[in-house]
């Protein structure tokens, strides 16, 4: 597998261009962005610098881009494309692409229950396993997220999902099926600053404990934010740090 091909670059930048073009045609209607609630869906472009510290494997670092397109306030498609460097193999290239679809099926069910949202999430092994840039498996999950407001500044977005991981092609292993639980807590400090705290447990052949700790700050309301995050996989002693920016379109 080639590390990076022209076709892969064309695919990524064409996707960004299409999103920008569609939004330009929709006019200049101003929207109020409240990104502290994950069930609020907005068209956006994200870029992140990433560093992975891995105890039993070489460290990895690079950039991760994703485009999120909201067809309407209740339907969103995400495509994430990472370009990473493996210190052990000394190779840089495309890693595994992720595609996610999110649907807010119900909103404002009660004063506190603000959303019921099913989702589907796929990770595609587009990277090179031999270059240390791929997990070498397809990972597919589908589940449901609820939005529940505790206080005006604190909300929870717990979720449960079914997970299927295919058999690796480059080393011994079997396909796996399991279940994933998350408890995503959103804490708003001000109208511009908010924090996500999300402990995650996944039950496959082994139990995996992981988490997300992601601080966000809206630099320009409704248009531009920055974020800093820590994304550990405690069970595998992998610690990922990310600095990113988001442009809302």
What distinguishing features does this structure have?
globular, 249 residues, twelve-stranded antiparallel β-barrel, mainly beta
Secondary structure blueprint with pairings:
Elements: H1 6-25, E1 44-54, E2 60-72, E3 75-86, E4 91-94, E5 97-103, E6 106-107, E7 113-124, E8 139-151, E9 154-165, E10 176-188, E11 193-203, E12 207-220, E13 224-233, E14 238-248
Antiparallel strand pairs: 1-2, 1-14, 2-3, 3-4, 3-5, 5-7, 6-7, 7-8, 8-9, 9-10, 10-11, 11-12, 12-13, 13-14
Describe the structure.
By secondary structure, the chain is mostly beta strands. The chain is 8% helix and 58% strand. It has one helix and 14 strands, in the order αββββββββββββββ. The chain has one helix spanning 6-25; strands spanning 44-54, 60-72, 75-86, 91-94, 97-103, 106-107, 113-124, 139-151, 154-165, 176-188, 193-203, 207-220, 224-233, 238-248. The protein has a twelve-stranded antiparallel beta barrel. It starts with 5 loop residues before the first helix and ends with a strand. The relative contact order is 0.16. Residues 1-6 and 19-28 have low confidence and may be disordered.
Tell me briefly what this model is.
By secondary structure, the chain is mainly beta.
Structural class call reads mainly beta
Mean pLDDT across all amino acids: 91
Order of helices and strands: HEEEEEEEEEEEEEE
Structure annotation, total helices: 1
Taking all Cα atoms into account, the compactness measure Rg is 18 Å
How is the main sheet built?
A: 12 strands, antiparallel, barrel
Name the poorly predicted regions: 1-6, 19-28
By DSSP, the count of extended strands is 14
The first-to-last residue Cα distance is 34 Å
Measured by DSSP, the beta-strand proportion falls in over 45%
User: Helicity, in percent?
Assistant: under 10%
Shape from CA axes? Answer: globular
């Amino acid at each position: 597998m080639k590390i990076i091909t022209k076709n892969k670059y064309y695919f990524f930048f064409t996707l960004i261009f299409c999103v920008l073009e569609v939004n330009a045609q929709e006019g200049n209607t101003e929207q109020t962005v409240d990104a502290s609630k994950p069930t609020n869906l907005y068209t956006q472009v994200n870029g992140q610098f990433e560093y992975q510290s891995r105890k039993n494997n070489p460290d990895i670092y690079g950039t991760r881009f994703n485009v999120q397109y909201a067809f309407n306030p209740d339907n969103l498609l995400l495509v994430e494309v990472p370009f990473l460097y493996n210190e052990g193999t000394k190779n840089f290239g495309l890693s595994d692409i992720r595609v996610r679809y999110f649907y807010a099926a119900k909103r404002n069910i009660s004063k506190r229950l603000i959303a019921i949202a099913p989702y589907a999430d796929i990770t595609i092994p587009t990277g090179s396993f031999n270059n240390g840039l791929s997990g070498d498996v397809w990972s597919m999950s589908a589940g449901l997220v609820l939005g529940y407001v505790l206080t005006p500044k604190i909300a929870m977005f717990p979720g449960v999902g079914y997970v299927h991981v295919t058999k690796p092609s480059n080393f011994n292993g079997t396909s796996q099926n399991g279940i994933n639980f998350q408890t995503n807590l959103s804490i708003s400090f001000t109208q511009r600053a908010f924090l996500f705290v999300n402990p995650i447990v996944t039950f496959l052949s082994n139990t995996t404990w992981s988490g997300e700790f992601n601080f966000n700050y809206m630099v320009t309301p409704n248009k531009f934010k920055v974020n800093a995050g820590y994304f550990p996989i405690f069970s595998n002693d992998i610690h990922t740090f990310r600095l990113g920016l988001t442009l809302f379109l």
